[in-house]
């Protein structure tokens, strides 16, 4: 449905996009990830025909954006960076203007406007000037105009930027509901958003594609995948690292600075509590005081037992979400095999 062929964009000596190619079939939501200045928005502008590429092209539903721009744009719904709109218009005027540009009028225009207003939930601000709206509502108006003509391809540049948590949840539900009949690209800085709505993700930096795969596949490439972070008393003892490295299923043990942000992979939801308790009991065997009070990732108080259960022949694979913590002076991070 969407095919990107060797897109290149240079601004003088600056290579903003360098030979980017990928495809997005119907039913796929592609997350476009990368730091500021990576080339995400520039790539989206070239795909939608807002910016002419230095080389390469994009094929949208069989139409080349370079040689058949009008036909190609009929298939595209585009939310640009910043959700630009005429500030002195109301959302009602703006959406009516967009409907007429898209070739709709009369009852058909009203029907389509009513549908997106209900879907995006902007009825209460329809008659306020856009310049008076909050950032979140301006973003929602921008999403509404992108959906007005029910396009086959959606290109959304940070669609949840400026939305409150409830609005983000609703927007993600909308994207997920539209997924079966469309090819969708969203750019975002939020990894949780990729996990929530994307079936595939591309990481771009310095204008080049660095990684392409499902969110799970990309997570497995991280050196912190399957990592657990523990804090314990006497963590500076050299025997501690050796004992943890000898545990079944542990691939590596590394010291971690207390100043390092506590982010990264956590324990899997459905087994996190048991694994956290098991990890604490194992380490507490020699290095935690009996019945030491500790706090896990959710802030729940637990106690380090002095008994040591057997982990058995295979330590279960440790994956995302929460990290067990035994509060003390030294921190270590281990990774499961």
Fold and architecture overview:
The chain folds into two domains: 2-220, P-loop containing nucleotide triphosphate hydrolases (Rossmann fold), CATH 3.40.50; 227-336, no CATH class. The protein is globular, with a radius of gyration of 25 Å. The strands form four sheets. A six-stranded mixed sheet has the order 6-7-8-3-9-10, sandwiched between helices. A four-stranded antiparallel sheet has the order 2-1-4-5. It has a three-stranded antiparallel sheet with strand order 11-15-12, covered by helices on one side. With 337 residues, the chain is of the alpha/beta class. Helix 3 (91-101) crosses helix 4 and helix 4 (106-120) packs across helix 5. It has ten helices and 15 strands. Helix content is 31%, strand content 26%. 36% of the residues are buried. Residues 262-331 have low confidence and may be disordered. Strand 4 and strand 5 (63-64) form a beta hairpin.
Q: Kindly state the mean pLDDT as a whole number?
A: 78
| Overall CATH class of the largest domain | Alpha Beta
Share of residues in strands: 25-35%
Q: What is the domain total for the residues?
A: 2
Helix content: 25-40%
Architecture of the largest domain, according to CATH? 3-Layer(aba) Sandwich
Structural class, by secondary structure, is alpha/beta
Largest sheet: 6 strands, mixed
Radius of gyration: 25 Å
State the strand order across the main sheet: 6-7-8-3-9-10
Q: CATH superfamily membership of the largest domain, which one?
A: P-loop containing nucleotide triphosphate hydrolases
Low-confidence region ranges: 262-331
| Order of helical and strand elements | EEEHEEHEHHHEHEHEEHEHEHEEE
CATH T-level fold name of the largest domain:
Rossmann fold
The termini sit apart by 39 Å
Please provide the count of β strands. Answer: 15
């Amino acid at each position: 449905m969407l095919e990107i062929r060797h897109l290149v964009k240079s601004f003088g000596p600056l290579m903003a996009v360098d030979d980017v190619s990928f495809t997005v079939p119907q039913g796929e939501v592609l997350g476009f990830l990368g730091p500021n200045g990576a080339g995400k928005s520039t790539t989206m502008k070239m795909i939608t025909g807002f910016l002419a590429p230095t080389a390469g092209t994009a094929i949208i539903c069989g139409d080349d954006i370079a040689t058949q721009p009008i036909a190609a744009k009929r298939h595209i719904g585009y939310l640009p960076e910043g959700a630009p709109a005429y500030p002195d218009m109301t959302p009602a005027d703006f959406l009516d203007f967009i409907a007429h540009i898209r070739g709709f009028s009369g009852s058909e225009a009203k029907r389509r406007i009513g549908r997106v207003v209900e879907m995006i939930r902007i009825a209460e601000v329809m008659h306020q000037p856009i310049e008076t709206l909050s950032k979140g509502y301006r973003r929602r108006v921008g999403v509404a105009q992108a959906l007005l003509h029910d396009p086959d391809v959606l290109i959304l540049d940070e669609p949840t930027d400026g939305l409150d948590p409830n609005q983000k949840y609703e927007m993600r539900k909308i994207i997920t509901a539209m997924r079966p009949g469309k090819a969708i690209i969203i750019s975002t800085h939020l990894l949780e958003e990729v996990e929530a709505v994307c079936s595939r993700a591309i990481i771009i930096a310095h204008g080049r594609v660095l990684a392409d795969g499902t969110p799970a596949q990309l997570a497995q490439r991280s050196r912190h995948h399957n990592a657990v972070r523990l804090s314990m008393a006497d963590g500076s003892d050299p025997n501690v690292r050796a004992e943890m490295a000898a545990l079944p299923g542990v691939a590596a043990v590394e010291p971690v600075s207390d100043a390092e942000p506590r982010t990264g992979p956590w324990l899997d939801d459905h087994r996190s509590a048991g694994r956290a308790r098991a990890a604490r009991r194992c380490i507490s065997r020699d290095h935690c005081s009996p019945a030491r009070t500790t706090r896990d990732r959710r802030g729940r108080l637990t106690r380090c037992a002095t008994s040591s259960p057997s982990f058995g022949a295979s330590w279960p694979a440790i994956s995302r979400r929460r990290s067990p913590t035994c509060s003390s002076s030294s921190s270590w991070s281990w990774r499961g095999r």
